Request: fold
Amino acid sequence: MERRLLSIWLPQLASDVSLRGCPVEGPFALTLRASNAEQLHCLNEAASHAGLHRGMPLADARAI
Reply:
């Protein structure tokens, strides 16, 4: 019997699901609290093009 593995990486899945019911024009990001700090966890393409990236502290993202 052959063993098959499948790996799927969907980096924008959480933001796509959140925006499905109420789309937003422009940058959108979801945050995650880690080590007593909020960091960007999932971004849409507009947020990525604006210079935001996953793992960026929320305070830095707000400054941009």
